Amino acid sequence: MNALQTLLRTLHDGERLLERDLLSAAQRHRGEQELRRVAADMAGWSREHAERIARTAEPYGLRLPDLAGPFSVLSVSSHAAVGEHVSPALGPPPASSRLLLRDLRDLHLAAATNSSHWEMLARAAHACRHADLITLATACQPETVRQLRWTTTMIRTFSPQPLISS
Fold this sequence. Notes:
The chain is mainly alpha-helical.
């Protein structure tokens, strides 16, 4: 497998993992309406990215797994569910706040990893003048940057209370 094939496979896998993790976080923190809604939307972006990568990779001799359907949130949850209704005045319980921060950190790191891979693919595509890869990176990279910005905003929003309270 050449370096370009390896990058395409890595990026495909990274987008599928980010999709799974976004859906899992949305399920675990379903009491946070904005997080649930935006995470589900962004999971769709990652799914579309993976599908586009798979289609684009075939002429490069790389057959990536078919995507039979979206990940099942119930089958991939790795943390305890945190969906109890909590009074907005009281805020979420400390354990769920820490879990939310851990999930946001993990989502941020996954989006940052994918963003760096998109940048590498874009640079290689331009250097080799591969129009199909340029089109792919141009279409998908900005959405990954938006995912990264969103996780940054969510971390800024949710981190003060659990980090300063006992």
